[in-house]
Amino acid sequence: MTKSTTKPPNDKDQATNRLTQLSSHISPNPKPKPQEPLPADHSDVLSQLQTLRNIAQTPDPQNRGYVRQKQAGKLWVRERIDLLLDKNTFAEIGSVSGTATWQKTGHAREKPVSFVPSNNVQGAGLLRGRKVLLTADDFSIRSGHADGASAGKTVYVEKLAIALRMPVVKLVDGSSGGGSVTTIKKEGWSYLPHVASFEYVIKQLNMGIPNLGAVVGPAIGLGAARVVSCHFSVMAADIGALFNAGPKVVEGATFEEGLDFQDLGGPMMHCTNGTIDNLAANEEECYEQLRTVLSYLPNSGSDAPPTVPCVDSVEREDISLRSLIPRRQNRMYNARTVILSVVDEGSWFEIGALWGRTAIGGLARLGGRPVGIITLNCEVNGGALDAAGSQKLTRLLKLCDVMNLPVLQFLDIPGYAIGTVAERTATMRWGVELAKAYFSTTMPVFNVVTRRVYGVAGGVMLGCRDPVMQVAWPSGQWGSLPLDGGIEVGHRHELREAEKVGKKEERYKELEEEYLRLMNPVRTANAFGVEEIIDPKDTRKVCCSWAEHVYEVLMKERLADRACGKLQPSFA
Asked: Which stretches are tagged as biased composition: Polar residues (predicted)?
C-alpha cells in the first residue's frame, strides 16, 4: 500500500489562509450596483418636453431680439396669437422644434440646458369659432430667417390645410424662413434656392381654401411672397413694410442710399399699388379685418359660404335712391351710397379701397347671404375703368369664383379710360384680362344698371352671363359711345357743313336733344333691350330675392359640379 506524500499544512500556511478569510469578510470586493430603471411613466421625457415648451413660451427680456421687437412697438409672436385667436384655443404644431443643447446626467439620461425655438410658430385654433391653421413669424429669433425647422413646419402646415380643408392665416414679420448668408457659413456650402411650399399654396388658392395674410413687421423676400400670394392681405400702418430685399441689399445693388423700411416698401407704397389689399391702423385692426373677411368665406370651395341671421328686412325700401343719380350726365355721386343702401346693414367690407380707385369692390351680405360687390367710382376719372381698376376687379372676380360667392354689380361704366396716360399704362391689355376673368368664371352675376353702360367695358361687364340677370334704373343710359364725343364722331361731316354757315352749335344741340329723346330707357324696354326697369327704392328687395334663389337652388348644383370636377375655378 502506497503512503500519501501530501504534507500537512504548517503553521505559516494556516496563518496565511486565515488572514485571507478575515480580509475577505472585512473588505469584500464590491459588486456593481444595478442601474436605476427609467421611469415606467416616461416622466423623464415628459419633463424634458415641458422644459423646452416653457422656454419657447416664455419671453427672455434679456434677449436682444425680444428687446428689439418691443422697441419697434411690435407684439411678441405669442402675444399676437393670443390677440388673434379665440381665448385658449391654440394648439401648437411642432411646439419643441428648434435647436437644443443637451447635458448627460447618467446612463441613458440627459437634460436640455439651452433651447432656441424655431422662429415660425404654427398650429391650429379658433377664429370666431371657425377652425383655422395659423403660421406666425418670430422676428426676435434670427429676424425670421430660415432655421433647422421652419421649412419643414411650413410645408407640413400647407399640406395639412389641403388635407383638412382648413383656412390658413399667416402673420408675416420677417422673411418667413427665407435665406440668409449666415446659413452658408453654418452649413459649409451654398445651396440652390427653392420654394418647396408654393406648390401647395397654389393648390390651396385654387381649391378655395382661404389664405389670409397680415404684414405685421418687415415682410422680406419669401415672407413678402407668402403674404402677397394670399386671397386677402392687410398691412399694419404703424409697423408694416414689404420689399424684395432690405435697404442694405438695395444700396449695394441700386446705389439708393438712406432708405428706411417705410421709404422702400411701407403702406403708402404697397397699399396704393395693389401689392397689399388693405391698410389697417395697427396690429389689432389687422386681426379684426382677418376675422371679418373669413366670416364671408367657406372653409373651402367644396362648401357654400356661411350664412348668418339677418335682422335687416329684405323688404326695406330707400326712397332716397330715386334722386341719387343726377339728371345731368356730367354730375357725379357717391357710388358707395348705393351699396350701403342695398346690402345688409353693417355688412359692407371694401377690399382695395386705396388702389385701382376707378373701381370699387368688396364683400357684403344680402339677407344674411355673402356676395361679392362690384361697382365703378364716377368720382374718379369719371368712372372710366383704368388699368389698375381692371386688375382689382379681375382679382375680386377670381376670389368670388373659387369661394362660390355670387356677384352683384351696380353698373355705371362709361367705358375704359382713354388718353395718353391710359395708353401708357396698358389699359386695354388689363381690360382684356378683366374680360377673360368675366367669361372664364362661372359664379352667378346679377346686374343693376344705375346709369351708364358704354363701350367694350360696359359690354363685358353687362353681358358676361347668358341669360343676363339684370334690372335697370330709370336713370339708365347706354350705347356704343357716350353722347359727349359720340355726336362729334357720328356727325362729323354734317357738323362741319353747319360750321361753314355758323350753325354748328345750333345743329349740335338739335342732335343732342334728339338723341336724348331716343335714349329714353323706356324705349329700350319697349324693344325688350332691357327686361325690367325698376323703382330704385325696390333695389334691395330685388337683389335679396336673387341671392336667396342662388343659395337655395343654384348653389347645390354648383357644389355638386365642383365635387365631381366639372367646375375647376382658378385663382392663381
From this structure: 16-27
Helix runs in 295-359, H state only: 335-342
pLDDT in tens, 411-457: 999 999 999 999 999 999 999 999 999 999 999 999 999 999 999 99
The dihedral region occupied by 177, where left means phi > 0, alpha psi between -120 and 50, and beta the remainder, is left
Q: Could you give the angle at which helices 492-500 and 483-490 cross, rounded to 10 degrees?
A: 80
Q: Is 105 helix (H, G, I), strand (E, B) or coil?
A: strand
**Identical fold, 56-186+193-294 and 319-473+534-563:** yes
What pLDDT was estimated at residue 75? 95
**Assigned C-alpha cell, 499:** 360750321
What are the pLDDT digits (tens) for 32-64? 666 778 888 998 899 999 989 999 998 888 889
- The CA distance from 396 to 505, in Å, is 44
Q: What is the predicted pLDDT for the residue at 143? A: 60
* CATH architecture for the domain at 319-473+534-563: Alpha-Beta Complex (3.90)
List 447's β-bridge partners, or say none. 409, 470
Question: Does the pLDDT at position 195 exceed 90?
Answer: no
Q: pTM for this one?
A: 0.88
In this prediction, residue 69 carries a pLDDT of 92
3-state SS class at 548: helix
With left for phi above 0 and alpha for psi between -120 and 50, is residue 382 left, alpha or beta?
Answer: left
Which SS3 state, helix, strand or coil, does residue 70 take?
helix
By DSSP bridging, strand 98-106 and strand 130-137 are unpaired
* 196-233 pLDDT per residue, tens: 788 999 999 999 999 999 999 999 999 999 999 999 99
d(CA 281, CA 358): 24
- The cell for 394 is 379681375
Grid cell locating 564: 365631381
Non-local (6+) Cβ contacts of 261 within 8 A are 218, 241, 243, 246, 247
What pLDDT is recorded for position 251?
86
Q: Residue 108: left if φ>0, alpha if ψ -120 to 50, beta else—which one?
A: left
**Residue 359 CB partners (closer than 8 Å, separation 6+):** 374, 375, 376, 377, 385, 389, 390, 392, 393
Q: Tell me, what amino acid is at 183? A: T
Instruction: Strands of 41-128 (E only): list them.
Output: 91-93, 98-106, 109-117, 120-127
The CATH homologous superfamily of the domain defined by 56-186+193-294: 2-enoyl-CoA Hydratase; Chain A, domain 1 (3.90.226.10)
- C-alpha 430/C-alpha 323 separation (Å) is 34
State the Cα angle at 508 between 507 and 511, rounded to 5°: 85
**What pLDDT, on a 0 to 100 scale, did the predictor assign at position 248?**
87
List the chain domain ranges. 56-186+193-294, 319-473+534-563
Average pLDDT score, the chain: 91
Q: How many CB atoms lie within 10 A of CB 542?
A: 17
Q: Would you place residue 488 in the very low, low, confident or very high pLDDT band (cuts 50, 70, 90)?
A: confident
Q: Per-residue DSSP letters for 391-443?
A: HHHHHHHHHHHHTT--EEEEEEE--B--SHHHHHTTHHHHHHHHHHHHHH--S
Largest Cα separation within the chain, whole Å, is 174
